[in-house]
Design a protein that fits this description.
Family: Belongs to the binding-protein-dependent transport system permease family. LivHM subfamily.
Keywords: Amino-acid transport, Cell membrane, Membrane, Transmembrane, Transmembrane helix, Transport
Number of helices: 26
CATH class of the largest domain: Mainly Alpha
InterPro entries: ABC_transp_permease, BCAA_transport_permease, LivM-like
Order of helices and strands: HHHHEEHHHHHHHHHHHHHHEHHHHEHHHH
Radius of gyration: 25 Å
Membrane topology: Multi-pass membrane protein
Organism: Lentzea flava
Strand content: under 5%
Length: 605
C-alpha cells in the first residue's frame, strides 16, 4: 500500500503538469478552431528561457517564472497568432496542421542555435519543503504542480463559461462576422486566447523540466500526452481534459511500478501515450461527413500520358549525364535525394491528391528498410517485398481509423508513428541488439545507384500521374473537395481512403528498401519519430501536388544534413528558415514548383 500511494502521488503530479499543457491546447482550439501542433515546442523554448534566467543568469525562481509565463510566453503567442495563425482563419485542417508543424520545427531550430546541446539541470520549486502522506513524501515542487493544475482548470472554466470575454471568444469562433456586429473584436479575442495558451504551455514545460530535463525533441514530443488528454475532452471540455490528464499520469506511473523491467516492457511504457491516443480516437463517435461548399485548392496541371513519357525521358537523360560527369560522392548524394523524392511521391498521392495529412509517413520508410535488411537479399524482389509489407500495414492503419477524419486522422498517424518508433523501430525487434543491420547492395557503383534511383523515381512518378488521371484519382480529388457530395452520389469514401493509404505506404516502403541498399547499413536512429516532421515540411515547401515538387523536395531534404555537417554554426538557423518557409507557404500546397510553372506560363503567354 505504501508503494501504491507513492506511485499514485507521482502519477497525479505528472498528470497535473499534463493538465496545464492540455488546458492551453483546448483553449486555443476552442476559441480559434486551430489545433496548435507546435504547442509543445512553445513550452520547450520557454523552459529553456526559464533556465537561462533562473539558472544561468541567477534571477530568483519566482521572478524568472513571472517574466517567462507572464511576459515572454504571452507575447510570443500574440506574435504567432498575428503573423501565422490569423492568416489561416477558415482554412482546411491540413493547412493549419502544416503551419503548426512549421512553428514546431522552427522553434526547435531556434533553441538549438541559442542553447547548444549540453546538460542543463533545473532546480525544482520549493525543493526544501514538502509533506509526508503516510510513508510517502510529497515535495514542494509536487504541491506547486498540483496547485497550478487546479487553478488553471478552474480559471479556464470560469473564463469560458462565466465571463463576457470567454463567451465572446466562443461566439467569435462560430460566427465572427455576426459577433462583430454586436461590438466584439474577433481579432483581439483570438490574440488573447493564443497569449493565454502560450503562457500555459510555458508553465507546463517549466513544471515538467525537473522531471524530464531540458531536451529539444523530448520536451516537444511530450505534448503527445497532452493531445491525448485534450481528446478525452473532445477538444472543448476542460473538466474532462483535466480528468484525462490525471488518468494518463496515473497509468504511466502504475506502468513504471508494476510492469516487468524487460526491454519490451520498457519500450511499452514509453509508447503508452500513443497507445492511449489510439484508444481515445477509436472510442470517439464516427466523424460526420464534411458539408458545405467545395474548398479544394487548385493544383498544378496534370500532364497527359505522352507528356509524362517525354518528361521522364528528359529526366533520365539529365540524370545519365550527371552520372557520367560527377564524382562518386556527389552521385551518392543525388541518389539519396531521389530516394527521398520517392518518399515525397507517396505524400503527393496521400496529401496532394487525397487531402490526408500524415504525420507518420517516414515510418513506412522504416518498415520497408527493415524488411529488405531482414531478407538480406540484393534481389529487386526484396524491394517489392518491402513495399508489400508497408502497403499491408498502411491498409491496416486505414481500416483501424476509418471512424475519424481531418484533424483526428492526422493525430492518429502521429500516434501510429510513435507506437512503431517505440515498440518496433527503436527496439531489438527491428534492428537486433546492436541497433543496426547490414544490407547488401543492389548496385555497387555510385553512378549505378544514381541511375537506379532515377529509374525507380521515373516509374513511380509516372504511376502516380496515371493514378491521378484515372478513375481513382478523380474520386480522390472529389472526396478531398467534398466528401458529403461524393457520399450522396454513392461513392464509398472510406474505402477510397484505404486504397490511398495502402498505395502511398507501398511507395514509401519501396523508397525505404532503396534507402537501405544505398546506405548499406541502416540503424534505428535513421527512422526516429521526429524525422516525420521535416518530411512533411519539405513536401509542402517544394509542392505536395506535383511530381516535380517531390523531386525538388527530395533534393532539398538531402541537402539539409549536408548543410548541418558543413556549416554547423548555421544548422539551427537553417531549421528555423525551414519552419518559417513552411508556415508561410501553408496556404499554397503547390509550393515553390508552382512559381516556376507560373513563370513558364507567363513567358509562353
Amino acid at each position: 500500500m505504501t508503494a501504491l500511494l507513492a506511485y499514485t502521488v507521482f502519477g497525479l503530479v505528472t498528470g497535473g503538469a499534463y493538465a496545464v499543457v492540455a488546458g492551453g491546447l483546448v483553449l486555443t482550439y476552442s476559441t480559434s478552431k486551430v489545433f496548435n501542433v507546435g504547442h509543445g515546442a512553445i513550452g520547450m523554448v520557454m523552459a529553456f528561457l526559464y533556465w537561462e534566467l533562473a539558472e544561468n543568469r541567477g534571477l530568483p525562481q519566482w521572478l524568472a517564472l513571472l517574466i517567462v509565463v507572464g511576459g515572454c510566453a504571452p507575447l510570443f503567442g500574440l506574435l504567432v497568432e498575428r503573423f501565422v495563425m490569423r492568416r489561416l482563419a477558415g482554412a482546411p485542417v491540413g493547412i493549419t496542421l502544416v503551419a503548426g508543424v512549421g512553428v514546431l520545427v522552427g522553434l526547435i531550430g531556434a533553441a538549438q542555435a541559442i542553447w547548444p546541446p549540453q546538460a542543463r539541470p533545473v532546480r525544482p520549486f520549493l525543493d526544501q519543503y514538502g509533506i509526508h502522506i503516510g510513508q510517502s513524501f510529497v515535495s514542494g515542487h509536487d504541491l506547486v504542480t498540483l496547485l497550478c493544475a487546479v487553478l488553471v482548470a478552474g480559471g479556464l472554466y470560469v473564463l469560458l463559461n462565466r465571463t463576457r470575454t470567454g463567451l465572446a471568444m466562443r461566439a467569435c469562433v462560430d460566427a465572427p462576422e455576426l459577433a462583430a456586429l454586436y461590438g466584439t473584436r474577433p481579432d483581439r479575442l483570438s490574440a488573447l486566447s493564443w497569449a493565454i495558451g502560450s503562457a500555459l504551455a510555458a508553465l507546463g514545460g517549466i513544471l515538467l523540466t525537473p522531471v524530464v530535463q531540458l531536451d529539444y525533441v523530448t520536451m516537444t514530443l511530450l505534448v503527445i500526452t497532452a493531445y491525448t488528454a485534450a481528446l478525452v475532452g473532445r477538444l472543448r471540455s476542460l473538466p474532462w481534459t483535466f480528468v484525462g490528464a490525471l488518468g494518463l499520469g496515473l497509468v504511466q506511473s502504475y506502468a513504471v511500478a508494476y510492469l516487468p523491467s524487460s526491454p519490451f516492457w520498457i519500450a511499452f511504457r514509453a509508447a503508452i501515450p500513443a497507445l492511449l491516443l489510439f484508444v481515445v480516437l477509436l472510442a470517439m463517435p464516427q466523424s460526420p461527413l464534411r458539408i458545405g461548399g467545395v474548398r479544394g485548392s487548385r493544383g498544378v496541371a496534370v500532364p497527359s500520358g505522352l507528356a509524362t513519357g517525354v518528361g521522364a525521358a528528359i529526366f533520365l537523360g539529365v540524370v545519365l549525364a550527371l552520372a557520367l560527369l560527377v564524382d562518386g560522392v556527389v552521385a551518392g548524394q543525388l541518389a539519396l535525394g531521389l530516394v527521398f523524392g520517392i518518399v515525397l511521391l507517396s505524400m503527393v498521392l496521400l496529401t496532394g491528391y487525397g487531402g490526408v495529412v500524415s504525420l507518420g509517413q517516414f515510418t513506412f520508410v522504416g518498415v520497408g528498410a527493415v524488411t529488405v535488411a531482414r531478407l538480406g537479399s540484393s534481389s529487386p524482389l526484396a524491394l517489392l517485398a518491402g513495399a508489400a509489407v508497408a502497403a499491408a500495414i498502411g491498409a491496416l492503419i486505414a481500416l483501424t481509423v476509418l471512424r475519424v477524419s481531418g484533424l483526428y486522422l492526422a493525430l492518429a498517424t502521429l500516434g501510429f508513428a510513435q507506437l512503431m518508433d517505440k515498440l518496433v523501430l527503436q527496439s531489438p525487434i527491428a534492428f537486433g541488439v546492436r541497433g543496426s543491420l547490414q544490407v547488401p547492395k543492389l548496385v555497387d557503383s555510385p553512378a549505378g545507384q544514381l541511375l537506379l534511383a532515377a529509374g525507380v523515381f521515373a516509374v513511380v512518378g509516372a504511376g502516380v500521374l496515371a493514378v491521378r488521371r484515372g478513375r481513382l484519382g478523380r474520386r480522390m480529388i472529389a472526396v478531398k473537395d467534398s466528401s458529403a457530395a461524393c457520399a450522396t452520389l454513392g461513392v464509398n469514401v472510406r474505402w477510397i481512403r484505404v486504397w490511398v493509404f495502402s498505395l502511398s505506404a507501398a511507395i514509401a516502403g519501396l523508397a525505404g528498401g532503396l534507402f537501405a541498399q544505398l546506405r548499406e547499413t541502416v540503424a534505428a536512429s535513421d527512422f526516429q519519430l521526429f524525422n516525420n516532421l521535416p518530411l512533411l515540411l519539405f513536401a509542402v515547401i517544394a509542392g505536395v501536388t506535383s511530381v516535380s515538387g517531390a523531386a525538388l523536395g527530395g533534393l532539398l531534404l538531402m541537402l539539409l544534413p549536408v548543410l548541418q555537417s558543413g556549416f554547423p554554426a548555421f544548422a539551427g538557423a537553417a531549421v528555423v528558415l525551414l519552419g518559417v518557409a513552411a508556415a508561410g507557404l501553408a496556404r499554397d500546397p503547390n509550393g515553390l514548383v508552382s512559381w516556376f510553372f507560373r513563370a513558364w506560363s507567363w513567358r509562353r503567354a
